[in-house]
Design a protein that fits this description.
The chain is an alpha/beta fold and about 325 residues long. The protein has helices at about 15-25, 40, 55-65, 80-85, 100-115, 130-140, 160-165, 185-190, 215-225, 245-250, 280-300, 325-330, and strands spanning about 5-10, 30-35, 50, 65-70, 90-95, 120, 145-150, 155-160, 170-180, 205-210, 235-240, 255-265, 270-280, 305-310. Helix 1 crosses helix 11 and helix 4 (about 80-85) packs parallel to helix 5 (about 100-115). The longest helix has 21 residues, at about 280-300.
């Protein structure tokens, strides 16, 4: 079968991770990249076309994509780009503002249905893999509530979405945000409790911010602490540092997390489900999950299915390179 032609939209850390992931998936080929800054991207990408993001007629004709992987941020990029790109091509994205996923799903479903395209939204490792684990845990242990925790190590885990949200604030030159799980909250679940947590009961957030010259520290701190959907519900620490210190101390993108659910089975026996993943590179982890979903999108589209989908709607076999016979032999 002809290889799946993938177009990358946005060439930041996730976009670079998608390029590397495509190299490891023999059924795919990188058709090209579209960007708001094509001249910048062309300095490092010379083997595929790089086109302006605002010229859909050009990139649809020249790149002929089967699917577009949208690598923009969730705060400002994807709410606008997602429905727009769904008009032209099948899409996959990692929209990760959990509180707004229902709203985003309906916008994407409307746009994709109208165009006859297929769109998978909000995938990566959370939302995405962890969303599936939450659904499974709640189904297999009835009455249990599944919880997700992130940043289990002493240094916490670097959140791309929250870091991107910090960088959208006027006066912020660069920033990293680390999430820290609260160990006592995890212990309660492992002890068999099903506590009702507020968001701030499970995690704290730590921000390292580089300011533009002349920026107002107090105003930026206030904006961070009051940012809805990102920092407002949490205990958040804001640290202002130099670019040199940020680059030296906080390079790399490690992250990890766990989904926990506790309950009882029919005879009152205790049950505990745990799923953990650890990533040396958060953007590369997200990129690899996006690429597997790109395969699933194309398979759904070839079946004539249109509209928006999540990981909860897609058969697991659609993500895999294996045949049905191989899956039965090696995964069952």
């Amino acid at each position: 079968m002809e290889k799946i032609r993938v177009m990358i939209v946005g060439y930041g850390n996730v976009g670079r991770g998608v390029v590397e992931s495509i190299k490891r998936n023999p059924d795919m080929v990188l058709a090209g990249i579209v960007s708001r800054s094509p001249e910048r991207v062309k300095k490092t990408v010379t083997d595929v076309p790089v086109l302006p993001v605002n010229e859909p007629d050009v990139w649809m004709k020249e790149l002929r994509p089967d699917v577009a992987i949208l690598c923009g941020g969730s705060k400002d990029d994807l709410p606008k780009q997602g429905p727009e790109f769904a008009r032209y091509v099948n899409t996959v994205d990692s929209f990760d503002n959990h509180s707004r996923i229902p709203e985003y799903f309906h916008a994407m479903d409307e746009a994709a249905q109208k165009a006859g395209h297929t769109a998978v939204i909000s995938t990566g490792w959370d939302p995405g893999i962890f969303s599936l684990q939450r659904a499974i845990a709640g189904a297999f242990i009835p009455g249990a509530h599944a919880y997700g925790f992130y940043g289990l190590g002493p240094k916490g885990g670097l959140s791309m979405g929250h870091s991107d949200a910090l960088r959208t604030i006027p006066g912020v030159k660069d920033a990293r945000q680390f999430t820290h799980a609260i160990p006592e909250a995890i212990d309660k679940i492992r002890n068999g409790e099903n506590p009702v947590f507020e968001p701030g009961d499970m995690h704290t957030r730590e921000c390292f911010v580089v300011l533009e010259e002349g920026a107002d520290k107090e105003a930026i701190t206030k904006t961070i602490l009051e940012m809805p959907g990102y920092f407002a519900p949490y205990k958040t620490t804001v640290n202002f540092i130099s670019q040199e210190e940020l680059d030296a101390k906080y390079k790399g993108f490690p992250h990890d997390g766990i989904v926990l659910a506790a309950g009882v089975t029919g005879n009152g026996n205790t049950a505990l489900s745990e799923y953990r993943c650890q990533w040396g590179s958060n953007p590369e982890a997200t990129a690899n999950v996006l690429v597997a979903h790109a395969r699933a999108v194309v398979r759904l589209a070839r079946e004539g299915k249109s509209g928006a989908f999540t990981i909860l709607d897609i058969p697991a076999s659609y993500f895999s390179l294996m045949t049905k016979e191989e899956l039965l032999a090696h995964c069952m």
